[in-house]
Amino acid sequence: MKTRNSIREIAQWMDDLSSVNSLRSLANQHRGIISNNNFSVRDIVDRHNGGTDSKDISFLFYNTWLIDVIDGVVGLGSAPWLSIRADLIGKEIRNSAYDIAALCEVFEEKYQKLIKKQRFSHEAMGPDWTLGNISSGLYTLSKFPLTYKRHRFECKGYPPDNFSNKGILLTTIDLGIGKIDLYSTHLFWGESVIEDISSYYSRRLSQIAQLYGIEINSFNLRTIIQIAQLKELTEYIKETHNPKHVVIVAGDMNINPGRSQENGQAYEKMKSLFSSITLKNGSKISLEDLWKFKGGKKGGTNTPTKGCEPAKRYLDPSSQICYCNDNTDETENNDEGRYDYIFVQKPAESHDIIIDFSRMKRRPFPIPDLEFNEIKHLKNNPLLSHIFLSFKNDPEKIALVITELIKKDCNGHLSDHLGVDVKLLVNKK
Predict the structure, then answer these.
(1) pLDDT per residue over 167-213, tens digit each?
(2) Rounded Cα gap, residues 370 and 377, in angstroms
(3) What is the average pLDDT value for the chain, to the nearest integer?
(4) What's the chain look like in SS3?
(5) pLDDT tier for residue 345 given thresholds of 50, 70 and 90
(6) What pTM value is reported for the model?
(7) Fewer Cβ neighbours under 10 Å: the N or C end of the chain?
(8) Using alpha carbons only, what angle is made at residue 336 by residues 181 and 293, rounded to the nearest 5 degrees?
(9) What are phi and psi of 87, to 5 degrees?
(10) Band of the pLDDT at 265, cuts 50, 70, 90?
(11) Is the Cβ–Cβ distance between 100 and 57 less than 8 Å?
C-alpha cells in the first residue's frame, strides 16, 4: 500500500475529481453514515498509512452487454462485436488495475475466458446454464483468493428474462486482513408484451404479491417481481452472511428512480429492505446506497453517450482513465437512468476490518482505436472480407475502417452501460 502523509494526498485519493485540501473536507470524506464519526485527523492519517494491516482495493461493477445466447428464442437480439468487446473489456480492467471486478451479462464461458486471461487468477460464476435456460451472466474476478455460492431466483418473472437463470452470486473475498461478502445480482427487466395480456397479468400479479407479502395496489407486475427478487436477496444475506465480514451488494437492479413515480417508490422499497436485515444470530445489519453518500450530482448509468462529460483528474491529470464529470450544478433529476448500484454495510462491532470508501464514480469505457493484430482474425468473416481485400496492402487502413464500424455499431462504447467504481481503504481492527 502506498503511504499518504499529506492532507492533500489523502483528500485527493478519497476524491480525485474535486480539488479539496482543507481539514474540514478531509474529515467529511471520512465521516458520515458509512464510517465511524469518532476520530481525529491523526486517526485518518494512520488509516492511510497502516502498513501490512492496511490495503487499498480498487472495485468495479460493470454490465458488459455480452448477450449472445439463443437470441432467436430469448428475443433480446445479439449484441454486436462480442469477442472483440470481451477482449477489450478484459484489457481495460487490467490496465485500470482493478483488484475486484463484479460483472454481469457475461453469459458465455468463452467471453469469461477472454476477460479473465488479462489479469485475474480467481473467478466466481453465478447460477449456470440449465436445460432450456442460459446462465445468470454474473461473473466476478478478484486478485485475492475467494470462495463462492450462488442462488437462482425462485421468482423468475416472464419472457424474455426468465430464459436466463438470474439470481445472486455470493463471493467471499479474503483480503488477508479480513473478508468481504460481495453479493452481486441482476434483477428482472421485464419489457414484454405479456404485460398487455390482462388475464395473465392479473393472475400472476396476485400470485407473486401474495407469496412475497407485497402491497398489490402499489406496483405493477414488473416492479412486484423486482421487489420479490430483492426480498430473496435479503433472505439470502440472512442465511449466508458471516457477521465478521463486511457486506457489499453490487448489481444492475433495473430500477430507475428518476423514470417514474413507481420506479421511485421501488427504489424507496429497496432502500427499506436493505436498511434492516436480521441475521440468523439475531443481530441486525444495515446497508446504504453508496451513491447517495459518496457519489455526485448525476447518477445515470444505462446510456454512456448521455450525461457523461469527461471530468478533470486532480490526483493524476495525465491518466488515460476517464470518469464522468459529476460535479455539475445541473438541476435535472440526478437519478434519471440510474440502474447500477453499490450498497455497503454500516460498520459493525463484529467486523474484523474497517473500510473507508472513496468517492463513487461513473466510468465510461470508450472503444479504443484498434491495432491490426487485434482484428486480423476477422479476415475470414464473410461480412468483412471485402475490407481486407480492398486494403490488403494497408493494414493500418483495415484497422481504422473496422474500428469505425465497431464504434458505430456500439455507439462508441464497450457496453450500453457505464461502469461504477470505488476505492476501498481497508484496515484491520
Answers:
(1) 999 999 999 999 999 999 999 987 554 555 556 666 777 778 777 78
(2) 13
(3) 84
(4) CCCCCCHHHHHHHHCCCCCCCCHHHHHHHHCCCCCCCCCCHHHHHHHCCCHHHEEEEEEEEEEEEECCCCHHHHCCCCCCCHHHHHHHHHHHHHHCCCCEEEEEEECCHHHHHHHHCCCCCEEEECCCCECCEECCCCEEEECCCEEEEEEECCCCCCCCHHHECCEEEEEEEECCCCEEEEEEEECCCCCCHHHHCHHHHHHHHHHHHHHHCCCCCCCCHHHHHHHHHHHHHHHHHHHHCCCCCEEEEEEECCCCCCCCHHHHHHHHHHHHHHHCEECCCCCEECEEEHHHHHCCCCCCCCCCCCCCCECCCCCCCCCCCCCECCCCCCCCCCCCCCCEEEEEECCCCCCCEEEEECCCEEECCECCCCCHHHHHHHHHCCCCHHHHHHCCCCHHHHHHHHHHHHHHHCCCECCCCCEEEEEEEEEEC
(5) very high
(6) 0.91
(7) C
(8) 45
(9) -65, -45
(10) confident
(11) yes
- pLDDT of the residue at 179: 97
pLDDT one-digit tens code per residue, 16-60: 777 655 666 666 666 544 455 566 777 777 888 877 788 999 999
| Domain 57-367+417-428 CATH class label | alpha beta
Domain with CATH 3.60.10.10 in the chain: 57-367+417-428
Cell triple for 62: 460493470
pLDDT of 335 higher than 50: yes
Whether the Cβ atoms of residue 347 and residue 35 lie closer than 8 Å to each other: yes
Dihedral sign for Cα 307, 310, 314, 315, please: positive
Cβ pair 41, 55 in contact under 8 A: no
One-letter amino acid of 82: L
- Average of pLDDT values for 105-129? 88
Highest average pLDDT, of 30-44, 295-309, 388-402, comes from 388-402
Q: What are phi and psi of 2, to 5 degrees?
A: -75, 135
